[in-house]
Amino acid sequence: MTTAEPGRGYWERHADNYDRSMRVLGGPLPRMLELTVRAVQGSERVLEVAAGTGLVTAAVAPVVGQLVATDYADAMVASVQRRVAALGLENVRCERADVYALAYEDGAFDAVIAANVLHLVPDLSGAPLALQRVLKPGGKLVAPTFCHDETLASRVLSRVLAVTGFPGARRFRARSLGEALRAAGFEPSATETLPGAIPVAFVEALSAR
Question: Phi and psi dihedrals of 138, rounded to 5?
Fold first, then answer.
């Protein structure tokens, strides 16, 4: 997401509240972390975009070689750095990065984790393409994503969040998320819908490039 994108300000303001919000929205989190760890285990180089406060970072770091954890909000990067330091995760590098302008070489990573971000990006076609560029041929994208349109309850809650300024760009269902990734050149290889106040569609997909 470009630094000029209005949603960045929201995350700068709410970084300190993010973990508390998981008390309401974090029902799918334990299973999501389990599946994500399983998907990337043994990968030598992994990129995480939209790392937030590092909840996924902390779970994944022990099972991979090197992990680059990025976010486009300075406050979120600071949160990840604090978590990484507290846990002594020496194989993690924390950086500020724009998902649309990743400063990494083509094919630099075995896997990319994009957890709970694709419903936020303003350009849905551009973001997966940017992630695909930095993946090795046949590399793995792990993209668990909040699906605000999955149930009646999630649709209602999503509209309440919108009133608070939450910068959602679209309301996925699990099916439409898979379709969007296929359109961007990924082939989903594992999917699971995780129940919660807003369900999460866990999608593991291989780059067709």
Answer: 75, 10
- Predicted pLDDT of residue 20: 64
User: Which pLDDT tens digit goes with each residue over 104-136?
Assistant: 999 999 999 999 899 888 888 889 899 999 999
Residue ranges for the chain with pLDDT beneath 50 = 1-4
Total-model pTM: 0.89
- Region of 158 please: left (phi>0), alpha (psi -120 to 50) or beta: alpha
The answer to whether the beta carbons of residues 59 and 89 sit under 8 Å apart is no
What SS3 class is residue 81? Answer: helix
Contact 206, 140 (CB under 8 A): yes
CA distance 38 to 202: 12
Residues 6+ apart with CB under 8 A from 20: none
How far is residue 153's CA from residue 57's CA, in Å, rounded to a whole number? Answer: 29
DSSP state of 195: P
Q: What angle do CA 190, 191, 194 make, to 5 degrees?
A: 140
E-state strands within 161-207: 186-194, 200-207
